[in-house]
Write a structure and sequence with these properties.
Blueprint: H1 2-16, H2 22-34, H3 40-47, H4 56-68, E1 72-76, E2 82-86, E3 92-96, E4 102-105, H5 113-121, E5 131-134, H6 137-141
Parallel strand pairs: 3-5
Antiparallel strand pairs: 1-2, 3-4
Helix pairs in contact: 1-2, 3-4
Length: 145
C-alpha cells in the first residue's frame, strides 16, 4: 500500500513539474510511511543519517514545494510548531492532550458543513479544519490522566 502511494506521489510531482530529488523522495516516503504528522525538525532528524549534507532549511524548502502542489498540508497549532500531513483525502485529527499524538479520522458528515456555513453566513467557504482533543489509548493505559 505504501509503495503504491509513493509511486502515485512521484507521478503527481512529475505531472506538476516538480523535480524529484533524492531528498524530496525521502521526505515523501517518510511522510507516507510514518503517518505521524511530523515537524520539519523530526523529518530532518529521521533522515539526517541517510543525507548527512541535508539541512533543516532543505527540509522546509521541500515541504513548501510539496505544499504548493497540494501534496502536503501544514498544520499549525497553538504551540507555534508546524506539523506536516501527507494529503491523500479529506480527514480530521484527534490529538492526545497528554503526549501530543495525532491520529487521522474520517467522518463524511462534516463534508456538508461548507453548504451550511455558506447558507448561514453568506461566505464562500474555501476550506475547513477540525481537531478533536482527548487522551489516547496508550496514555490511558499508563494512567497519564
Amino acid at each position: 500500500m505504501h509503495k503504491e502511494s509513493i509511486q502515485e506521489a512521484i507521478i503527481h510531482l512529475k505531472n506538476s513539474g516538480v523535480r524529484i530529488t533524492p531528498q524530496r523522495h525521502a521526505i515523501i516516503e517518510y511522510l507516507i510511511e510514518s503517518q505521524s504528522h511530523p515537524t520539519a525538525d523530526e523529518i530532518y532528524k529521521a533522515l539526517e543519517g541517510k543525507f548527512p549534507n541535508m539541512s533543516v532549511a532543505t527540509v522546509y524548502n521541500n515541504l513548501r514545494a510539496l505544499r504548493e502542489v497540494g501534496m502536503v498540508k501544514e498544520l499549525t497549532f497553538g504551540d507555534s510548531s508546524s506539523r506536516f500531513d501527507y494529503v491523500t483525502s479529506d480527514h480530521y485529527h484527534i490529538i492526545c492532550e497528554k503526549c501530543g499524538r495525532m491520529t487521522d479520522f474520517h467522518y463524511d458528515g462534516l463534508n456538508s458543513i461548507h453548504a451550511l456555513v455558506e447558507k448561514e453566513t453568506g461566505y464562500s467557504v474555501t476550506n475547513h479544519r477540525m481537531e478533536v482533543y482527548g487522551v489516547c489509548p496508550s496514555c490511558k493505559e499508563t494512567k497519564l490522566l
